[in-house]
Structure formats: structure tokens, C-alpha cells
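Hi Y.,

Following your request, here is the sequence exactly as I used it, all 280 residues.
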Amino acid sequence: MLPDKTGFIGRRLIVASLLFLFVLGTTGSFAVRGAAQQSDSITVSAAISLKDALDELGPIFQIQQHRQNGGSGTAVTYNYGGSGTLARQIEQGAPVDVFFSAAEKQMDELAAQGLIVADTRHDVVGNALVLIAPAQAATPHSFQDLTNPAVKALALGETSTVPAGMYARQTLEHLGLFAALEKKVVYAKDVRAVLTYVETGNADAGLVYQTDANTSTKVRVVAVAPADSHDPILYPAAVLRNSKNKPAAHAFLEFLQGPDARAVFQKYGFTSAEKSATKN
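Below is the corresponding structure, written out as C-alpha cells. Let me know if you'd prefer a different format.
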């Protein structure tokens, strides 16, 4: 008697169909589970002078979010640069969730265009401006020494895009020195570039934040700029109107104002915003 090929083939089709459905269901469950396990993320455009502190704070924030909300926590991606350059990027539509500036000016400009969520804006920390020179250099020993012929190059941040450069010019003008020094000035794209110029001897002196000077053993602090010689050095942060992840952006801003962040900022030499605001 010949075997029933039709029945045999039918049974094979049924088995194959069940196997296909099983594989499909398993793959689907993996896809759903994988999507659920993907971490949230936000992009923070921040002044380069904040780099060391924020690089340390990012993982702390992610761990806190993991504990509070489960999942993998919120990952933070940073875009560092001069505050003016970062503000222009945001104006041109850069996908940013939080802007953390080294001056009020750039935040004011974005606010005027309706690009930030106004009620999220807060001054987070403050800083001081210092004159630096290469660690082994014999001169300068004061702001007035910058007019010495031995000081051939003075590094400053671009005054239109780098808040430290703006504060530096204000200070030198307040001290009546800028006109005499203008021919010596070498402009840099951001405050860390100013630090590098002085570290490498490509500039005989420079004006940077206290926190930048603290990161280097290759420079010495010559003098601290008088508090009344420049605008208060304040670092405002705000959520961007076009943020793709506003809940996480709001949470990050709250975190920046909390005790864990405050301790890290103090570790790197930042002052409280309240203290900096009342200096001038």
C-alpha cells in the first residue's frame, strides 16, 4: 500500500507553519524587550569650561535616573564649545535638549527668540577670571606687567563668541590696559584653547577662568581679575523649546542644582551662582 503523500505533506506544512510562528513571536518579543531596554538620552550643549565637571556628572545622573525610573537610565551626550558658537548652532536648528552657557548674554539671545523654556532657566554656578602665565616664566607678575616688552603675546577668547574673552576685554578696559595691549592679543576659539596657548608657550600670558587654571600644572595664576572689573560670571542653563526629551531634560536641570552636582562643581573650583551674582 502506497503511503498517503498528501497527508504527509500536509503535516509537514502544519509543523513548518507552527515553527515559523514560534520564531516570529520570539523575534518580536526580543524586539519589544530590546526597545524597552534602550536608554533615554539627551544632548547638552555646554561651555567648554564646564567639561571636567560635566564629564564626571553625566554617569552620576544616569545612575540616579536608573534607580528612580528603572531601565538603563538617561545617557547624556555633551557638545562642548564657546557659548556663542553653541548658541548659533541652536539658532540654526541643532538638536539640543539643554543649553548650559558661560554667560547670560547668549542665554538672553536665545530667550529673545523663544528658543528656551523660560521657566526652566536657572543660574547654576559662578566662576572667577584669572591671569595666567607659563609655570616657569619670569614675567608677568601683575596685570600691569602685561605692558612689559617681554610679554609678546597675550591669549584671549574671541570676544564675540567666548564669554571668557568678553570678560577679559572688560577687565583690561576697566584697568586702562586694553588699548596698550591690543597689538599683543592672540584670539582663541574657546577658553581651553587660551589655556593651551599658554601651556605650550605660544602665548606669554592669557585670561581664563579659575577652574581652567586649576586643571593645569603647566601654568601659574598671576592675578585674579577684580570682581568689579567685569560682568558677574554666571552659568545659566535651560531646557530648549525644541527638546525631543523634555522630561529627561527637566530632570537633568534639577540634578544640576542638587547636592551631588554642587559637590562636583565645588571640587573643580566653581562658586555658587549666588556668590558670583553679589560680587559686583
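The first helix runs from residue 5 to 37.

Thanks again,
Q.
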